[in-house]
Amino acid sequence: MTYQPVALVTGATRGIGRAVAAELSTTHRILVGGRDQSSVAQLVTELDDAAPFVCDLTREDEVAEACAGITRLDVLVHSAGVVASGKIGAASRELWREVFETNVFAVADLTRLLLPALEAAKGLVIAINSGAGFTSSPGGGIYAGSKFALRALTDALREEVRGTVRVCSIHPGRTDTDMQRELQAAVGNGNYDGTLYVAPESVAAAVRLAVDTPANATIEQLSIRPSIS
């Protein structure tokens, strides 16, 4: 019997995560990660070979329960994330906690729990970071701070598990997702044009490149920007 590699994609029911799940489903059994059971179930039915991975990534007990029984994992894609904007002087501690809880702490905890399964498969961890993981700007310090921290996490993890698990950080620029539409609406952009942004499928293609790279090499970091300025 041929072994079917397994990929867990968090945030798989929308945006980049959904595109990644669809792309990898052609070669992998997909564990569809998400909080909403009905949305997860719907995507599971749409993919050729998939199973649900339902939990709130900010709840340690739910994450531990969802991970129980996973003994081998070939690919872990961290695509779940939240965004926030606002000046430092107006941002509450609660807002900082909320953003870092999902964008950093949940990634670290899920990786920790699944590291034995990834090591068993000599697998690959892919973090969907952001262009904000390299630069920040006024009003973007909260989100960028979490993405800088995520880059530090993946940089450290890469060296800690080198030779056993590969680690890739992918940094999309502005991408045509519902989250991007919400962001643009929040800043008063009433003329949203998705063609000006990176397509989620283009980010998924970058994930595919990292997955398909032979095991004797690692794509450690990729930046993706819109072709139209």
Describe the sheet with the most strands.
7 strands, parallel
Q: What is the subunit arrangement here?
A: single chain
Which strand order does the major sheet show? Answer: 3-2-1-4-5-6-7
Say how many strands there are: 7
**Radius of gyration, rounded?**
17 Å
Number of helices: 7
Which class do the helix and strand fractions yield?
A: alpha/beta
What value does the average pLDDT take? 94
Proportion of strand residues: 15-25%
Shape: globular
Question: What ranges have pLDDT less than 50 throughout 5 or more consecutive residues?
Answer: none
How does CATH name the architecture?
3-Layer(aba) Sandwich
Task: Report on the architecture of this protein.
This protein is α/β, with parallel strands linked by helices. The protein has a single domain, classed as 3-Layer(aba) Sandwich (Rossmann fold). Helices cover 43% and strands 15% of the residues. The chain has helices at 15-24, 37-46, 60-67, 93-121, 141-160, 178-186, 200-212; strands at 6-9, 29-34, 50-54, 75-78, 124-128, 166-172, 221-224. The chain has a 7-stranded parallel beta sheet with strand order 3-2-1-4-5-6-7, sandwiched between helices. Helix 1 (15-24) crosses helix 7 (200-212), helix 3 packs parallel to helix 4 (93-121) and helix 4 packs parallel to helix 5 (141-160). The longest helix is centred in the middle third of the chain and has 29 residues, at 93-121. It starts with 5 loop residues before the first strand and ends in a 5-residue tail after the last strand.
